[in-house]
Amino acid sequence: MNDIEILFAEDSADDALLTMRALKKSGFLNRVHHVKDGAEALDFMYCQGTYSKRNSQEKPKLILLDLKMPKISGMEVLEKLKTDPNFQSIPIIILTSSKEDPDIQKCYALGANSYIAKPVESDNFFQVIKEIGLYWMILSQLPD
Q: Model-level pTM?
């Protein structure tokens, strides 16, 4: 688990595959850990369950979070992490198919750093993922 810089929470196999391809094409794939639901995302962050042996001092620098996931929703994950002083400074980018204004408003109110509706066309999607990686992993100064 060393050097994980991006935690990517996405339950859709198709969306996950597209995102991972885009991250690979952008040179970020080797530093991404993909989880399939909100419960697994929280287990990863809190070093519980499958991740109980993970070093709790090694935190991702960025979280890409889908909203509509099984077990625990992305909204619940966002709220839990942004109210925890140990994780508040980690940027959380909502990457979801929902373009509903109430979702957007609530995510920002809970502390999301950005809200991006997934483009349907794969060419646009690849560009969006590349720009996310460029901005958040290279240009933006993130806390250690």
A: 0.87
